[in-house]
Amino acid sequence: MHIKVGIIGCGSIARHRHAPEYKANPYVSEIVFFDRNPERAKGLAMLFGGSVATSVDDLLDDPTIQIISDCSSNEFHHIFSTKSLEAGKHVLCEKPISLSIEFANKIVQAQKKSGKKLMVDHNQRFTQAHMKAKEMLENEELGKVLTFRTTFGHAGPEHWGVNMTNSTWFFKHNRSALGVGGDLGIHKIDLLHYLLGDEIEQVSAFQGALDKVDENGKPIEVCDNIVCSLKTKRGYIGTASFSWTYYGEEDNSTIFYCEKGIMKIYHSDEYQIEVITKDGERVKYQIECMQTNDHQTSSGVIDAFVDSIRLDKEPLVSGEDALASLKVILAILKAAETNTVVTI
């Protein structure tokens, strides 16, 4: 089976994740790139041996293209992903699925109507350690989960984005809107839903632009830090922190405190999962290394999406899953702005 792919948006995520992983996939025969900046599209086409489209419609009107990767910035997902589904393409959309529930619903409805596959790139589900942790939690190896804490932080998108400056679109309210919540937080919310097999239904939070400044030296228009309390439908309670100001080291760890002990994920440099039982026994698992901004490994997302099309199976992260996580992030920001507990 030979699959032809179109990529919309040729920024960092396309360069570091989508393009190289499609290139490495044995079933993908060709990649066509589109970007509003034609030079950027040409650069990736040269790098990965693909071709360039002059417009989004060129991609969507091409009957030989089966997959579209929507790597546009957040405010365009509901336009490009919806159009692509309506044009009969399978769509892998970058996260967050959209900036509002209304727009996210447009994408989900377009998927239902088209019958094509839609997956949203919540890549934390795909790491070997998180898959192993899910299995252990489902088997209740440490009994039931009682509480949890999770964090996701690094030095900020200006160290990762395509232009490597603090004029990055991530800092603009009209383009990123959700700040660190839509960049990093939404990953961890999706991960908690996945690992717990549950959904968060109540939140409270604090947020702020504590340190980042834009290209004019003014505080950025979105939050660079969020700290929140979360309660799930089944009654698990926990905390989460999301940050663009972890200067010195990225932190991507999650801890579950269970009836019979503690499970720490990505807490140690050496072991991806550590279990400490009630009576003090320690079990350490070396599974794989975590993908970080500085250390790029294959995320597994592209291979999983190609397989879902090739083998006609449900993608691991559906539009509905992504919508559920978006609702939580929007509630967290509302809770912080209104100083209230918000029920989703």
Automatic annotation (TrEMBL):
What species is this protein from?
Answer: Paenisporosarcina macmurdoensis
Which PANTHER family has this protein been placed in?
A: BILIVERDIN REDUCTASE A (PTHR43377)
- Which residues are in the Gfo/Idh/MocA-like oxidoreductase N-terminal domain? 3-122
One family from Pfam that matches here is GFO_IDH_MocA_C3
* Name of this protein: Gfo/Idh/MocA family protein
Q: Which residues form the GFO/IDH/MocA-like oxidoreductase domain?
A: 131-263
